[in-house]
Design a protein that fits this description.
The chain has 166 residues and is an alpha/beta fold. It has one domain: Rossmann fold (3-Layer(aba) Sandwich). Helix content is 57%, strand content 13%. It has a five-stranded parallel sheet with strand order 2-3-1-4-5, with helices on both faces. Helix 6 packs across helix 7. The longest helix has 19 residues. The chain is globular. The chain starts with a strand and ends with a helix.
């Protein structure tokens, strides 16, 4: 069982925050996209583009299963919640939803390869938020404001996790 799992839209900082939480707890960070890339021999985004979303979600589910079997802080891809089997797994974990305004996400996007945010990233993020918000709520113990600095968001996650331990 993982120590903690982060879910949320692209650019909410799941990977960076999970890495910082893992550092604070002196444990390992595992990223599901990185596990997929390792296993498939190509970047997760490239696999999605070449094989399609159905095949991608199947591989993502396997990566999630592997990650959850580790004593780690886990960061997931933004769409992990679209798969019912993944949601069932996440519901049993100490899962937190990182969330912030689309404006903040737009500032953070940068040049990352994000196939689901093609021509109009703002419109895509708003659409993804509308589609996924219920699933993020369903699997998470708490919504955490992901606006602010890495240090601020990490502190919010650590504080939320500490509440659960008490």
């Amino acid at each position: 069982m993982a120590r903690l799992v982060l879910v949320g839209l692209p650019a909410t900082g799941k990977t960076s925050v999970a890495r910082a939480v893992a550092d604070a707890w002196h444990c390992v960070h595992v990223d599901t996209d990185a596990l997929m890339s390792e296993r498939l021999g190509c970047p997760a985004a490239q696999y999605l583009r070449l094989q399609g979303e159905t095949a991608f979600r199947d591989e993502e589910l396997e990566a999630l299963r592997e990650a959850l079997n580790s004593d780690a802080v886990v960061s997931t891809g933004g769409g992990i919640v679209t798969t019912l089997s993944a949601r069932k797994l996440l519901e049993r974990e100490r899962t937190y939803w990182l969330d912030c305004d689309v404006e903040v996400l737009m500032q953070r996007l940068g040049e990352d390869d994000r196939p689901l945010l093609t021509d109009d990233p703002r419109e895509a993020l708003e659409r993804l938020r509308d589609q996924r918000v219920g699933w993020y709520r369903e699997v998470s113990r708490e919504r955490i404001d992901a606006s602010g600095t890495l240090e601020e968001v990490t502190e919010r996650v650590l504080a939320a996790a500490q509440k659960v331990e008490k």
